[in-house]
Structure formats: C-alpha cells, structure tokens
Target: Peptidase S1 domain-containing protein
Amino acid sequence: MERKRLRTGLNIFEKCAASAESLTYEALFAKDLGMTETQRSFEKDELLSKIKQCPKNPGHTDFFPVGCIGLLNLPAVCRDKQVLNYLRLFSRLTVKLTCLFTSSMRQGPYKLLGQKIGHASRRLATGFAWLPNHIEQMPCTITNCPYGEHPHSVYGFIRILTNKHVVYDESEAVATQGLFWDEEVRGVTYSAASRCIQVQCVGLDFSQGDNDAAHLRCVTHDSYLCEELKQEMSQLREIYNSIPIGVWQGAENFCAAISHPHGMRKTISIGRHIRMVETISNAHAHYHTCATCPGSSGAPVLYTNTDIKGALPMWVPAIHSYHCPTDGYNCAFK
Ligand SMILES: [Zn+2]
Ligand SMILES: [Zn+2]
Model:
C-alpha cells in the first residue's frame, strides 16, 4: 500500500516536472496556436478598407478613443473617477511604434509571416514609456537625422517597453520610431499638450525570449517631452495612491488594454483577466478578454487579480503579446 502511494506520488511529481519544463514562451505560443499582433503598414485608404473588414473585431465597437471613454464604459464595480483618470493618464505614456526593418536573425515564434527581411515592409505596434530618472541633453548622432547634419541636441533616454516580436534585435531597434500623444483630444484634460511628438530608438537595452519583452532606449529632439513624461509619471503615482482600497477589492479580474489597433489613434479597451500561467523562468502569461487587433502588440495591459499574492493591482502592466484563436482570449506577459 505504502509503495503504491509512493509510486503514485512520484508519477505526479514527474508529470509536474514535465509540464513545468514545457512552459516556455515558445511552448505556450505553440499550444495556444498564438497569433502575434503587429500590423503591416498600408496607405491610408487601404488601411481604412482593411479596418472596415476587420475579421477580429468587426466595427471596432469595443475600442474607445481615449478622449471618449467615460465612467459608464467601466464595469459597475469599479466605476470610480480616479480609475478613469488613471487609465487616461496611463494612455499618455503609451506610444505608437513604427519599425522600418526586419532582421534576418528572427526564428521560431518571432518569425513574422508575410514580412520580408530588410527594409521591404514596415510594421506598426504599440509600446509604453517607463520613465527616465535622469534626463540628459546630448549631441544628436542619428544617421540621416531629419533635422539635418548641423550640430544639434537630443534628450533622453526614454525607455519604451514592447515585445521582442515587435523589435527583435539591435538592427531593428535603431530602425524604430515612436509617436507620443496622437490620441483624439477632447475636453480640458487633453487640450494642454495636444501635439504629437516623435522619438527615435537608438538601442536595445534588454530583450528576453521567455516573456517576449524588449526594452528600447530612445531619444527625442523635443526638449520638453522627457520633463512632461516625468511629471505625468509622478501624477500617475498620485492618482494610483488616491484610489480607495475598496475599489480594488471590488474590481476583481478587471482588465484594460491601451493600444493602437491597426496603427490607428490610441484606444482603450476594457475586459476581464481570465487566468495567469507561469513559464519556466517565472514569467507570467496573463490571459485576458480586452479587445486587441493587429497593431496592439506591445500594449500595456493593466489588470487586477486577487489570486496573485503580493502584486500591486494595476501598477506595473503586463505587455500584450498574442491572440489565441482556439479560445478567443488574448495573452499578455510580465
Ligand atoms: Zn481590427
Ligand atoms: Zn537629430
């Protein structure tokens, strides 16, 4: 009897070890039949017709422009003005990315279907800034800088977080640009700084396969951008701290994604956090129902989940990575 129990125990242990071994990003991606969500760039007219026929989210009714989202778009349990302000302010840190180069080194789940190697096709995706503590002014060394060859300054570094499948390596990083603040502007909150500002990526600081993460090092020619982002980050902390604990407790499994579907203007989509799965290197895959489309890869996904011990609700977002066509969920990594 004792031997039987022991044998059964070992079998369970062996099963667990085998499944833990297989839980890499690549294995999850294969199991989920994952579809990454970058968008090939089109001419405007062609893009509009693509959007009208969008098979994933016909009519795009679940994407709310940042300036239009209101309390009624939030689930009743967290219909709190500060939660709304938090999402709006987080959208200010969210950025549209354009990558002008595709590396020949891509392999496995990082291969992009239908995209040619080199400069042949550009792809659109999303990222978000996680801020510089220290801002520097430095000489511009960008090759073919649109501001010309005369000596001038850039400011940085702004760190932008996105997916490894969006920016695979250094050769893609230096061919990537970001656009801040292209959201629709309505009302007082967004009228003060209603201008788009471009940043140029100058390097890849960090890249990790097992959670599909890439951290880009970026600079800007705009002398105000870093300071404004820094101020907005500190406002974000204030708003976060002012949200009553009861709201978090009520907002169980709330989820929000901020992205540029098809490279269009920034939108917020609201959904539910479904479950979390841990990978072999302790990265967390978060399955969610927020609407995403091609172009949403790299989007910040803010969530609450009471099963995850010690995690501050919604403070550090997961990063949207792929769509799972079998169950219809989307998957973000942290
Ligand atoms: Zn769509
Ligand atoms: Zn320059």
